[in-house]
Amino acid sequence: MSTATVRFHLPAPELRGAISTYYILRALGPGVVEDIIHPEWANPRLVLTGQWQVRFAGEAEVETLPDAALTGMLERGAFVRGSPGVLIGMGVLPEGWVRLTGQSADAFANRLRPLSDAFGPGVEALLARLRGAGSDAEALAMLDAYFIALIADRPLAPPIVARAHTALVTAQPRSVEAWAGDLSVSVRQLERLCLRYFGLTPKRLLRRQRFLRTLAAMRDAAPGAWSGLIDSHYVDQSHFIREFHYYLGMTPRAYFARTQPFMREAGDQRMALLGAPVQGLHAPGDGPPAARPSDG
Known about the structure:
Helix 3 runs antiparallel to helix 4. By secondary structure, the protein is α+β, with helices and mostly antiparallel strands. It is globular and about 50 Å long. The protein starts with a strand and ends in a 22-residue tail after the last helix. It has a domain of 154 residues: Jelly Rolls. Strands 1-2-9-4-7-10 form a 6-stranded antiparallel beta sheet. The chain has a 4-stranded antiparallel beta sheet with strand order 3-8-5-6, with no helix packed on it. It contains 11 helices and 10 strands.
């Protein structure tokens, strides 16, 4: 059976408002590994060796991942398949998106694009350096140096972006109006802010967040206990099952019965490092200092 390992690491302190984590994924084979990525914030991915394919939930087309690729903010999950090799990725937080790219997040949401579309042609040189790195620690230092230089002269996101992100994760607003009220802005102002920094409208973000909260609660529970973990925003269990199928393309029972070559381990490591098993539940500023590996 094909297997994979994944290891998560925090970026340099000056990057933690922009990047949630780095991760190094090794697909070990034989054959290919397959898994389902959860809805997430934007993720740059750099393929050092091997090849990957992706199919977004609700879509029929299978796309080949460029060696330097970006999946924008994902409203729904994605089915991925990779051959033996090494991939390095990172999660870009809403507060870091415009600072890192200078572009509006909605232009990249739910799309696979070359990473140079977001960060410019310098990513090809970064990829070449990463392929020559002698250890994980060296590769992580290269990533830190690249992103620190990228944001050196760029202003921070307005404070309201982190406030909106915090409210989305911790206050769990029941409606767009309530979310806007918590921030003392109009609904229209909140919509513009969300499209630019988060990539989706407020209504779709709230809907996605409800799903992620319930998914995280269910991952360590027996199937018979799931009904007690469903978010109170859902009308009933049937409503949630329909939503689960929308976001991940199958029922909860089918999803949790699957082999998860790396996403299960990824959730465990996220929980240990940042206190939540999926990226969309990380609040701004989450995470203690983390030691870097000394070798690969």
